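Reviewers asked in the last cycle whether our approach scales beyond single polypeptides. To address this, we selected a multi-component target totalling 506 residues and predicted its structure end to end. The input consisted of the following lines:
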Amino acid sequence: MVIDNMLYNVGRYVSLLRSAVARPEKFSMYYKETMRQMDAIGVGSVFIVLLISVFIGMVTAVQFADQLGDSFVPSYYIGYIVRDITIIEMAPTITCLVLAGKVGSNLAAEIGGMRQKEHIDAMEIMGVNTAAYLIMPKIIAAVVVIPMLVAIAAFVSIVGGYLSTVVPGSLSHTEYVLGLRSFFVPRYVFMMFVKAAVFAFLLTSVSCYMGYYVKGGSIELGEASTSAVVVSNVLILVFDFLIALLLT
Amino acid sequence: MIRTEDIKKSFGENDVLKGISTEFYAGKPNLIIGSSGAGKTVLLKLLIGLFKPTSGKVYYDDTDLFSLDDDALREVRMKVGMLFQGNALFDSMTVGENIRFPMDMFTNKSLGEKEKRVDEVLEMVNMEGINDRFPSEVSGGMQKRVGIARAMVLEPKYLFCDEPNSGLDPKTSILIDELINDLTHHNKITTVINTHDMNSVMGIGENIVLLKDGNLVWQGNKNEVLESDEQVLQEFIFASPFLRRLREDALKQRHAHE
Ligand SMILES: Nc1ncnc2c1ncn2[C@@H]1O[C@H](COP(=O)(O)OP(=O)(O)OP(=O)(O)O)[C@@H](O)[C@H]1O
Ligand SMILES: [Mg+2]
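The resulting structure, written as structure tokens, was:
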């Protein structure tokens, strides 16, 4: 029963995405919509991303400093650890989990509302490919903008680590920067962007799917919005693991 | 012209349409009437392909609607306008942007040309000057007119209206009916209207289809409605004693004339 339901949803999700990949009726309309979404998803999320990542950087640095304590590990490792943890895991994963909550629920509610108010039917009757017009611009916008947000998050986390160790004086500026410059693996940055793009795709496509097939009324709309967040989060974690397996 | 061939539609156990074969003519308002739950909305949504029938066919002139692939279906739909029961105006766009939307999507007209056409259709529905208002800022009757204006903006060959005058006062409903009637005749549109408004039936009913429990039980025009002794029809249309008396008077008058 549960399996049936899951397979049904996966099938419908795939076929929705297939019809979303189509030649735009009018390029300029899709372009405009993509820009609008970039603004909403990107600019609209900068503040929360900054806030979260500065704290993550601070916490990582402070806790790692504590764990190092008086051990033999040189203290400049703090900079190195903060950098790698942030780039590999924290920036892409935490940022996208948060964005799934903020952007995902929003997309599901927006599209679901359009479905319930018959806006989607109205567009279909005009001859618009609604799967394409309502979904493709959002996915493109997210896949372009969210990796940028993630890069900002990584940078800000590293600054956060600096703020919580160098500024109070538990670590010197030179040590932190030395740590940042040690053992750098460019592949990790590549991995960060891969994760960010994959997560961005997952969270937008899943949320749009949840909204697109909403039935009923406001309770169902709320449920769709919740499932958008929950399912996106689970998938982000699963793919985090898969990408880690594949790319390390 | 739209023709249906033995259309059946079930939702699970619920057989909503049980074999509808009929024709809807070009240049005439075609009315689908029937009590609540008779299947009017389902039939209308089948006619435009929002639902797929369990069996049976829908022809647009000679095109079999359900044999078309998605692209060809969209091709047909560009010739279709629809007024939804709940209007389905996009609430984050102004009235002007709503009406412009189909042109934005499907034409290469300049902004100026599009704005001109918006003004034109707004004038057609007697609503000039409300371009910059949002749908939530105009009354229900005005929203209907805007809905009609948006449906008409690309000069459709087929127009579908789901209960265009539900929730409107009798005078406004008659205005809306006349508007749809004029547009239909003037532009030779195949118009299909769902209604249970008796003013519409007697006012613009040139081809009336009565549905009952998923079957087509009567078809004719407004004069035949008056004359027909068909039980189901009379029960449905002349439901109140007052209307029954009116009908008898009308028939008497007509026969006195002859
Ligand atoms: N999407 C759907 N899923 C399942 N059943 C449906 C669906 N849409 C309509 N029905 C069923 O079809 C039947 C006919 O509904 P329909 O909306 O066509 O009635 P109607 O004639 O338009 O009534 P009204 O005048 O009240 O609008 C009802 O029994 C309804 O439960
Ligand atoms: Mg109905």
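Chain B has a mean pLDDT of 91. We regard this as preliminary and will revisit it once experimental data from Aim 1 are available.
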